[in-house]
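anyone seen this seq b4? input:
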Amino acid sequence: MEQEFTCPYCWESISMLLEFSVSETYVQDCEVCCNPIEIKTLWDEDYLSSFEANPIDQ
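predicted toks r here
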């Protein structure tokens, strides 16, 4: 599943592919500004029930 969101640092719209049914928290760098973003996903079977993209205090 493709998820589009706004980078919490540079405010650019970016997208990423999410794996179905894997609820997790991980870090991914922004494709535009390269700052680390904490990604949190929560799935309810095949439905994405929660998605967060938060800045990481450095």
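Residues 4 and 15 are 4 Å apart (CA to CA). The radius of gyration is 11 Å. kinda curious what u guys think
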